[in-house]
Amino acid sequence: MKKCYNTANAAETISLGKRIGALLKPKDVVLLTGDLSAGKTTITKGIGEGLGVTKTINSPTFTIVKEYQGEYRLYHLDLYRLEGLNNDFDLEEYIESDGVCVIEWPHQIEEILPEEYLEVTIKRISELEREIEIIAKGSRYEKVVQQL
Ligand code: ADP
Ligand code: MG
């Protein structure tokens, strides 16, 4: 199952993220794909809001992982700079944890991704417009997309 949305500005993308976040549960994994500045971190701000995170979510590009507490724990991963690092990050630990995992640039770690996940692909249409495709991989996420 798949749903597609168009947002006219960052606030609308955050609202969509909030609706997604409100449907997520422990152990859920959300993969975010899209070019630099597409809006992956922006939609994560909304996902965090939907999970009840009150702290401001900022890009984890330089730290790889940032951790937040809402109704559940949220791990926000950005693997853009992963390659340059000496690989002592145990990313599987986050993916297999009881938290919700939101991963930017997930294809860096294809081999440890779960079989089922929610994939959000953001495409830049213009300065302020984005096309956001939300695809369910697996029955758990079919339910999420259905409810969206
Ligand atoms: P990424 O994490 O994909 O590199 P960011 O979310 O950090 O991207 O940056 C997206 C930028 O685009 C932000 O400055 C944001 O304010 C801006 N922007 C403009 N319009 C939108 C929109 N419709 N949705 C998301 N971000 C938008
Ligand atoms: Mg980002």
Describe the fold and architecture.
- The chain is α/β, with parallel strands linked by helices and 148 residues long.
- It has a single domain (2-147), classed as P-loop containing nucleotide triphosphate hydrolases (Rossmann fold).
- Helices cover 26% and strands 29% of the residues.
- The chain is built from 4 helices and 7 strands, in the order βαβαββαβββα.
- It has helices spanning 10-23, 40-50, 91-95, 139-147; strands spanning 2-7, 29-33, 65-69, 73-78, 100-104, 117-124, 130-137.
- A 7-stranded mixed beta sheet has the order 1-7-6-2-5-4-3.
- Bound molecules: adenosine-5'-diphosphate and magnesium ion (MG).
Q: Which characteristics define this entry?
A:
single chain; 148 residues; alpha/beta; seven-stranded mixed beta sheet; 4 helices; 29% strand; globular; binds adenosine-5'-diphosphate; binds magnesium ion
Task: Report a brief summary of the structure.
This protein has 148 residues and is α/β, with parallel strands linked by helices. The radius of gyration is 14 Å and the shape is globular. The mean pLDDT is 94.
